[in-house]
Each structure stands twice: as structure tokens, then as C-alpha cells.
Fold:
Amino acid sequence: MEIQVAIIILLVAVIIATLAIFLAATILQLFKINAGLSVVLPLVGQIVAKTNPVNPVVDDINAQLVVTRDALENLMLKKAGPDSAGLVESLFPGEGTKFLRRVGRSGKVVNVGTVYTRGVGILAGLGRGAPIGVAHTKGPAVRDPRYSTTEAAKLYPAPPDRRDPTQNIPKAPVIGNDPVHSPYEAALTPGTRTRDAQGNKIEAPPPEPAPAPTGKIEVAPSSSAEGSAAPTQPDQPSRPGRMSAKGTRPWER
Amino acid sequence: MADAALWIMVVILAVVIVVLLALLKRVLKAATSIPPKIDAIAGVAAAASKDLDAVAVLLTTQGYIKSIRASVLNYGGSLDAALPDY
Structure:
């Protein structure tokens, strides 16, 4: 046999051996892959099964939230009117424009919180104030300057002690316990009237006469109902320091 | 002449062996790299499947959202009656 034939046989044998070794190793790896996939596939199936009901549940939750948001936005529009977007903008900057877009309206969003004070905004929301926000802040006054106090007086037509309790008129708003910029000053002579009802100065307070008959049937207290002849003591102001005597005069009772 | 043909065949077989070794080595390398990745995927899938156990709580959340919606609408109706319209 020639040397070339022997080499050829040897090379063919090497090729066959190489193929066998590498294919065996590859087959071994394929078995490992098969075993790994048999572990992974059930887990993926679990994931698919567990995420299957998520979409309808999340869609339902989103629908509920959208309905709630729409209801609140409609309530806001109903109660605050054109100021709605401004109120939203004052509390949540940047949301006023989105609010307008969602409710299908357009226009400039005026930040109510920066234009008006918080209390004015609340009063406007409660419907007690002027139509705040309907005009520009640099424009003419919306409220009538001559009868604005009349409109306010209509809210509280009588002092608290003479109100008709059946009308359920709310109390006047209190501006803090000790306002710094109070328009009232403390009286130098509390309880003493220095001017009469017409504004004339009273030199010396005359002795208080007996009260004139008012025509009303008044029930006297038990102490005075015993027929004592002592003169009636003048009425002292119930609240010292009160600047206005309106409502405390005998003929106003 | 016959000797030359035999020698050419020897050379060709030698080249075939080299090429065959390179190709089989690449195939084996690729096959070897797959099982670790499958093991990693199995670990992640197991963790993801365990995390998704909380998906059932979404049903409770759905109920809560429905009750909250009813409460908010009730509050809104009360405010609608309490506050005057613009």
C-alpha cells in the first residue's frame, strides 16, 4: 500500500472521529437545552395565566376613575362657573389648561389664587360675593360702588339678637380673633356716650329718666315685680366698648 | 500521475479537517452558551410568576374603587345641594 493511501485513510478516520466527538457534545448541550426549556415553559404559562384577567380589571378601574373625575369636573363647572379653571390652576399649577381641555372649553386660564385672596375666592365660590373673575382685574369695578354696602347689608338685615331664628341667617364672617388692621379703635370712655344719635356733643350726661311707656307689655324680672318704688336704673351697655348703640336703645327693642 | 492525484487528495482532506474543526467548534460553542441563559430565564420567570400572585388583589382594588366612586358621587351630590350654583 502506498503512503498516500495510508494518509488518506488516516485523514478520513480523523474526520469521522472529529464529527462524532463534536456532534456528541452538541447533542449533550441540546439535551440540556431541552431540560431547561421544560422548566421555563410552565413558568411562562403561569405568567400568562396570571396576567390574563389584568386588562379587564384595569380597564374597569380606569373607567370608574374617569367617571368620578368627570362628575367632579362637572360639579366644579356648575358651582364655580368660569372661575373653575382658575381655581384648579391656583391649587395645582399647570392643571387649569388641562381642565379646560377635558371639559371642552377654551380660553385663558386666570390663576385665581394669584389675583384674589383666598378668602375672596371662597366667598365667590359660596356665591356671596361679586361675580369675581368675570372681568379683568385692570378693568372697571364689577360691583356697584354706591350700593355695594346695601347688598352686603341684605345678607345680615338685623343684629344677631333680633334675627328671626326661623330664617336661619348665617353669622357674619369673622376676620380673625385680633385683626391687625381693624377699622375700629378701642373706646377711651367705654360705656359712655359722648354724642347723641344726631351727632351733637353731650356736655354732661344727664340723669337717666324713667323709661317712657313704650306701649309694649313687658315682663319685668322677679326682683322688680315686687312693687319697689325705687327709680329704674339706667340701662348699662351690655357690651362695654361697643361703638354703635344701634339695637340697644329702648325704642329699638 | 496517480501519485500526484493522491497527494492532492491528501491536501484536500487536510484542509477539510481544518475547516470542519472550526465549524464544529463554533456550533458547540453556541450550543454550550444556551443552557446558562435558559437557567437565567427560568429564575426570572419563577420570580415574575411569584410577583404576579398580587394580581388577585386587583379584584379587591376594583371593589374599593367602586365604593370610593359611590362615596365621591354622594359627596358631590351633597355639595351640589349645599352650595349655590354659579
